[in-house]
Amino acid sequence: MPIRASIFLFCLVRITMAQLLAQEEKEKTTALKDLLSRIDLDELMKKDEPPLNFPETLDGFELAFNEHGQLRHIHTGEPFVFNYKEDLHRWNQKRYEALGEIITKYVYELLENDCNLKKEILPVDSTVDEPKSFIYMSEDALTNPEKIMVLIQGSGVVRAGQWARRLIINEDLNSGTQIPFINRAKEENSTPEEHTLYVWDHFISKSLAKNIFIVAHSYGGLSFVNLMIQREAEVKNHVRAVAMTDSVHNVWHQEANKSIRDWLREHCCNWVSSPEPLDTLVDPMLNDCPRVSAGTEKHELTSWKSFHSIFKFFRDALKNHEDESSSSPVTTRSSHRIKNEDL
């Protein structure tokens, strides 16, 4: 009996010690959290950080685009380096963002000077104090009687003329901008959906083009499906084909009706990020339109990698439309009679 009592007492002491240690650890954790709450981490990161004064031009960054459209250091020929200063991630990020703003202005200049596009301010009847946006369009966008192509970028920091800023900085202008699509075709409201609808109503729908082709990347695909829901008859009458690239649309969540889903299956193709070779059919998660591989697993590269496939898709769609138009049967009294007899 005394031995059992000793064992019980020993166990009780060990349990008590463990509880005391746990309580002490909890108090230390609470004290540490209290200390951290008093520290402004942003201010701590600014300690010993150089001033956030960055150049306002590519020359100031000692960078330039070479003949291949690649951003390179003008003296060393090296690509852009994000970690310009070690262990100063916040400063490096701010430097990257400052360069990104310069890149945006540079692309706008290319759209206006090299692609001969003009800026259109939105809304068209905006007042001086009203928030504004803009799009770029060719001089003949509303008068060309044959074709018109509409480019819709994704959401985020990308602006008109861009697919992905990161690609422009780290890869080249061809993969990161819409300029190749613009050049080949010649041989941006409160939400992206409202913006697309506004541009359709005030510009695209007024065009004399009989055949409209659309390239919609990422969220741009969702914006196009919303456009179809709002302007179904107009879209079906004018749009010949839609090339989506890694589109994030969802016809069921967006409540697209059956006729829209059927039209998308016939006139749309979605080039998605995939390890499979380019144009390999990918099993669709949603049975709305064919999904094929863009030949890359990088979301932002899908438009560029599928460039040639997209224009082949457009050519085939136009040919099919022309063939269908030319082969439409002529209705006569005899044809009605035969049809009725067959019925």
Automatic annotation (TrEMBL):
<dbReference type="Pfam" id="PF22749">
    <property type="entry name" value="Arb2"/>
</dbReference>
<keyword id="KW-0732">Signal</keyword>
<dbReference type="GO" id="GO:0005634">
    <property type="term" value="C:nucleus"/>
</dbReference>
<dbReference type="GO" id="GO:0031048">
    <property type="term" value="P:regulatory ncRNA-mediated heterochromatin formation"/>
</dbReference>
<dbReference type="InterPro" id="IPR053858">
    <property type="entry name" value="Arb2_dom"/>
</dbReference>
<feature type="region of interest" description="Disordered">
    <location>
        <begin position="322"/>
        <end position="343"/>
    </location>
</feature>
<dbReference type="InterPro" id="IPR029058">
    <property type="entry name" value="AB_hydrolase_fold"/>
</dbReference>
<protein>
    <submittedName>
        <fullName>Family with sequence similarity 172 member A</fullName>
    </submittedName>
</protein>
<dbReference type="GO" id="GO:0035197">
    <property type="term" value="F:siRNA binding"/>
</dbReference>
<dbReference type="InterPro" id="IPR048263">
    <property type="entry name" value="Arb2"/>
</dbReference>
<feature type="domain" description="Arb2">
    <location>
        <begin position="54"/>
        <end position="188"/>
    </location>
</feature>
<feature type="signal peptide">
    <location>
        <begin position="1"/>
        <end position="18"/>
    </location>
</feature>
